Amino acid sequence: MRRWRALFQPGWLALAVAVVAFAYLCFTVLAPWQLGKNTKTSRENNQIETSLNAAPIPVTEALPRQDSSAPDLQWRQVTATGHYLPAAQVVARLRMVDGEPAFQVLTPFAVDGGPTVLVDRGYIRSEQGSKVPPFAAPPDGTVSLTARLRDSETAPLDKAPFHQDGVLQVYAIDTRMVAATTHVPLAGSYLQLVEGQPGGLGLIALPHLDAGPFLSYGIQWIAFGIAAPLGLGYFVYSEIRARRRESGQQSGDTAAEPVTAEDKLADRYGRRR
C-alpha cells in the first residue's frame, strides 16, 4: 500500500486530471470538430460533382414556397424568370474571391409564380480600401436567368448590417437576416449566378474538389486521446516497479551501503552515458 501512496501526491493527481481532461476533449470536441468539417466538405464535393452532370431545373421545383430551402440540392443549377428588386439590394463585405478581398452584390429576385429569392450577382473589387466601388444596376423588367442553389450562411451576432457608401452592407449571405433588414420575404436558399446571366458581375467560380486534411486531423486527435492515458499508465507502472525494487533492496540487506538519490534516479530512468 505504501508504494501506491506516492501516486496520490499532488503532482501525480494533477497529471492524471490533465490527461483525463485532454483525452475527454480529444474524443468529444477536437476529433468531432475535424471529422464534422470532413463530412461537410465531402458532402459539398459530392453535390458539386453531381451538379456538373445534371440539367438545370426550374427554381420552383427546388423552392416551391416562400419559406422553402433546398440543402440537399446545393450547387444544382436552376432556371428562373422574374424581375430584380434593386430597392432591397445589399452588399456582402469582407469576402474572399480567388484569394483577394471583394464585395458580393446581393439583389432579391421575384420569381414569376414562385418565391422571392436572394440572388448573388457576383463580386466587385474594392478600389479604395473598404469603400464600395460603383457597380452596374440590375436590368429592369422581366428576365430569365440560370443560377446555382446555395445554402444560406449564418451572420455573426456581433456584426449588424449598416448603411455606408450609399448601400446597405452585411457580413454574411444570411437570407433571414437580409429579409429582416430589407423587409422583403426571401426563400431559405439563395441563388448564385453562373456566367453570362442578366445582372451578372464578377463570376464566382466553383470551389475546387478537395477533401482537405480534416479526416486525417480527426484521426490524429483520436490517436492523441488514446495515447495520453496509455502514456500515463506507463509512467504509473514505471513508478510502481521502481518503488517495489527499492522496497526489496531495503528489506534484503540492511547492512548494505545506503542507496543514494542519484542511484535511485539511475535505477528508475537509466544512467547517463
3D structure, described in words:
By secondary structure, this protein is of the alpha/beta class. It has a domain at 56-193. Helices cover 39% and strands 21% of the residues. The chain contains six helices and nine strands; from the N terminus they run ααβαβββββββαβαα. The protein has a five-stranded mixed β-barrel. A hairpin with a 2-residue loop joins strand 3 (90-97) and strand 4 (100-111). The chain is elongated.
Main attributes of the structure:
273 residues, alpha/beta, 6 helices, 39% helix, elongated
Could you describe the largest sheet, including whether it forms a barrel? 5 strands, mixed, barrel
- In total, the number of strands is 9
The residue ranges in which pLDDT falls below 50 over 5 or more consecutive positions are none
Average pLDDT across residues? 83
Q: Judging from the principal axes of the Cα atoms, what is the shape? A: elongated
Reading the helices and strands in chain order gives HHEHEEEEEEEHEHH
Strand content: 15-25%
Numbering strands along the chain, what is their spatial order in the largest sheet?
2-4-5-9-6
Total helical segments: 6
Q: Cα-atom Rg, whole angstroms?
A: 31 Å
Oligomer: single chain
Distance between the termini: 34 Å
Helical/strand content category = alpha/beta
What share of the residues lie within helices? 25-40%
Question: How would you summarize the topology of this molecule?
Answer:
Elements: H1 2-5, H2 10-52, E1 57-58, H3 59-62, E2 77-84, E3 90-97, E4 100-111, E5 116-124, E6 143-150, E7 162-164, E8 167-170, H4 175-182, E9 190-193, H5 214-252, H6 261-269
Parallel strand pairs: 1-2, 3-8, 5-9
Antiparallel strand pairs: 2-4, 2-6, 3-4, 4-5, 6-9, 7-8
Helix pairs in contact: 2-5
